[in-house]
What does this fold into?
Amino acid sequence: MGTQQIIPVVIDTNLIVSALLFGGKPGLVMSHWKNGRIQPYISRGIIEELLRVLLYPKFELTEKEVEYLLYREILPYFEVVKIEPGPVIIKADPSDDEFLLCAAAAGAEALITGDRHLLNLKTYQGIVILTPDRFLKAYF
It folds into this structure.
């Protein structure tokens, strides 16, 4: 029997939130980070954005619940990488560059996102950019 390869990935903020709070296809991606089939990477900037988004009033999460999600559902599974600032890649939404730079710094194989600016690139430095559905179909 061969050993299964662990797939290095970066997952965008909205998909992490969807996985944690709503399930669906992002929830299936989460099951793979929890069972060790994928190794998700995250940067400090992505963590800061994630905390901001989780505290949006529409989610009605307390600070304690957000802290639980961060320390029990994310940080034990995600490896934090340091990224260096670079030139603007996505001119329509430069904040999306954080995900590309994180994926490149981590040596990720895939960037999983629902963001159209990122999806329109299709690849970045050899990293495939896929929706959760396409990622699951391609790898699992």
Remarks:
- Residues 10 and 34 are 14 Å apart (CA to CA).
- The chain has a mean pLDDT of 95.
- The two ends are 18 Å apart (CA to CA).
